[in-house]
Design a protein that fits this description.
Length: about 600
């Protein structure tokens, strides 16, 4: 008889743990999340996280929680071992952050792991594991609480190690993770140390405002409005921003449910709806909110990472958040009512009626010249614009006569060939971009000294990540110098900023750099920084321009290498020839 071939087999515990680690332990921030949750569940009031090399070399988390006995410590490293639940019915009313019993064995299976714990001051139980293989239990002196050390993360799974992003990206994710728990639990003192430097240090006094000031900076914290209300059995407590305080991304939107930081579509949609028509397009409000609800009305067992929840009544949760935020904005006078809008519109209309629009007066065709760029040792010369290979755009705008500005967004001009319509923002963006990247020569970036130096205050996360890019930002024309803590002194700015607020512009640029590094997990190249900066510096759609400013912008555009596309690839100019116009009106 032939032997039966067995195709289905039971996996060994070590392989099972490594598979589970793939779901739970994606990167250093995942380890920080799981271990901080355990520390919070243990009743800790002080949690310290120490990192080296953004957590790849070392993650040490110590707390002053209840600790574990020797027996519980050994059991905790077994898969599906947990003190949080006992039976399936307990999943309907989970009141802790952890409950699956997978974190510790999963982490231990992909690192050099040690756990030291005690229920009282004195003698601690020490358990070590290398790649999931347990070593003999040891004893050591130490205080009540638990300390877990994770070294050489993914040392035995090199393929996964290769998938980690840059050091700044991984560090940013760790800071963001701990910041979420610090804001959600203001009664717990959190400290984050990286490479011997304190990155985050919250007071743990139970005051959410003080915690926000530490995590996001005092300036941002002062701009927020407090919210505390109860709607349909759902409590909302925290802070929200007025419509004019927005960020480049959702990185400053922290929402938790019963103390569990979550990312749930229902709540994000409700947040967007609450601020609809109040905030600028592609800008996001700042939110730090905790929703409290009966645990039986939500399902937290949705994903292995436990960062999602499902509501028994999604519509009720949506409305509670939307109505709560709208009411808070109205209560604090942060959202305009109908009468205020009407008054503002009438005042704007009156200004427009009384303003003489000189841009529609007849003008003679412009006569201008464009520079020929030579080596720095040669004097700068000019020549009359002709239909040359270097400046093909000049052919399009021969005999240019600016007619005016449409919708404060598009420049309308008559030429010898017809009508040119120019998008002012992308046109200016192209001009600035070529200055920044050196196409105008090595000394083209002009600096404008400030009469009074201004101070840029950053939050802890942005400050840590910005240090790696500060020289590249200085090269854009900003004179920056450290001014203690997370602050910088701005002494001069690029002349291209015109009348823009340099602090606001820099903060938006840094937000975008941090967002690209952390949320998108991409390290911006120097060219991408030029593109970001040119977009921030350029005039915006909706900015009114004088006739002289429109003329200057078109002349500058004519001298660029590519006057047809902005750095993002968007078209700058649309032209209608005389023949096009005559055909439209059936004159041909």
């Amino acid at each position: 008889m032939s032997a039966v071939t067995t195709r289905v087999r039971l996996l060994d515990p070590h392989t099972i743990n490594q598979i589970a680690a793939g779901e739970v332990v994606e990167r250093p921030a995942s380890v920080v999340k799981e271990l901080v949750e355990n520390a919070l569940d243990a009743g800790s009031t002080r949690i310290t996280v120490e990192l080296k090399d953004s957590g790849t070399t070392l993650i040490r988390i110590s707390d002053n929680g209840c600790g574990m006995s020797a027996e519980d410590a050994a059991t905790a490293l077994q898969r599906h071992a947990t003190s949080k639940i006992e039976r399936v019915e307990d999943l309907e009313r989970v009141g802790t952050l952890g409950f699956r019993g997978e974190a510790l064995p999963s982490i231990a299976s992909v690192s050099r792991f040690s756990l030291a714990t005690a229920e009282t001051d004195g003698l601690r139980t020490v358990i070590r594991a290398v790649g999931g293989k347990m070593e003999p239990v040891e004893r050591a002196s130490g205080p009540k609480g638990t300390e877990i050390v994770v070294e050489d993360l993914f040392f035995n799974t090199p393929a996964r190690l290769k998938f980690l992003k840059s050091s700044s990206t991984e560090l940013g994710l760790c800071i963001e993770t701990l910041s979420r728990y610090a804001i959600t639990f203001p009664n717990v003192a959190f400290k984050l140390i990286h490479g011997g430097h304190v990155v985050l240090d919250t007071p743990g006094a139970g005051d959410l405002f003080s915690t926000l000031a530490e995590v996001w900076g005092i300036d941002l914290a002062r701009s927020l409005a407090e919210i505390s209300t109860q709607i349909g059995g759902i409590g909302l407590h925290g802070f929200v921003s007025p419509p004019h305080v927005t960020k480049y991304s959702r990185a400053y939107q922290f929402i938790s449910v019963n103390g569990r930081p979550v990312k749930t579509r229902t709540l994000i949609a409700a947040l967007d709806q609450a601020y609809r028509d109040l905030t600028p397009e592609r800008r996001y409000p700042v939110v730090a909110l905790n929703l409290t609800i009966d645990p039986t009305r939500i399902d937290v067992n949705v994903s292995p990472t436990k960062n999602e929840v499902k509501f028994q009544q999604e519509g009720q949760a949506f409305e509670a958040l939307r109505v709560g935020i709208k009411s808070a904005l109205m209560e604090h006078g942060l959202a305009p009512n109908a009468s205020q809008i009407a008054i503002a519109n009438e005042a704007l209309a009156e200004v427009r009626r009384n303003t003489v629009d000189e841009s529609f007066l007849a003008q003679a065709p412009l006569q201008f010249s464009a520079p020929v760029f030579q080596s720095p040792s040669e004097p700068l010369q000019t020549f009359e614009v002709t239909a040359s290979e270097r400046f093909p755009f000049s052919k399009l705008i021969e005999g240019l006569r600016v007619i005016g500005q449409a919708m404060n967004t598009f420049i309308l001009a008559e030429t010898d060939h017809g009508i040119a319509i120019i998008d002012q923002h992308v046109a200016h963006e192209r001009v600035i971009y070529e200055y920044l990247c050196g196409l105008k020569g090595p000394t083209a970036i002009e600096r404008q000294p400030l009469l009074t130096p201004q101070t840029l205050h950053l939050d802890r996360r942005s400050s840590v990540l910005f240090k790696e890019r500060v020289d590249e930002v200085r090269a854009l024309g900003f004179d920056l110098e450290p001014f203690g803590g997370e602050s910088y002194l701005i002494r001069s700015v690029p002349a291209a900023l015109r009348a823009k607020d340099p602090v606001k512009m820099l903060r938006e640029l840094i937000d975008e750099l941090v967002e690209s590094s952390v949320s998108r997990k991409l390290v911006p190249t120097r060219e991408q920084i030029w593109i970001m900066s040119s977009c921030k510096m350029a005039v915006k759609a909706g900015d009114p321009l004088s006739h002289a400013e429109m003329e200057k912008l078109i002349i500058d555009l004519a001298s660029t290498e590519n006057p047809y596309l902005c750095p993002h690839g968007r078209p700058i100019t649309i032209s209608l020839t005389k023949d096009d116009l005559f055909r439209k009106f059936k004159r041909l």
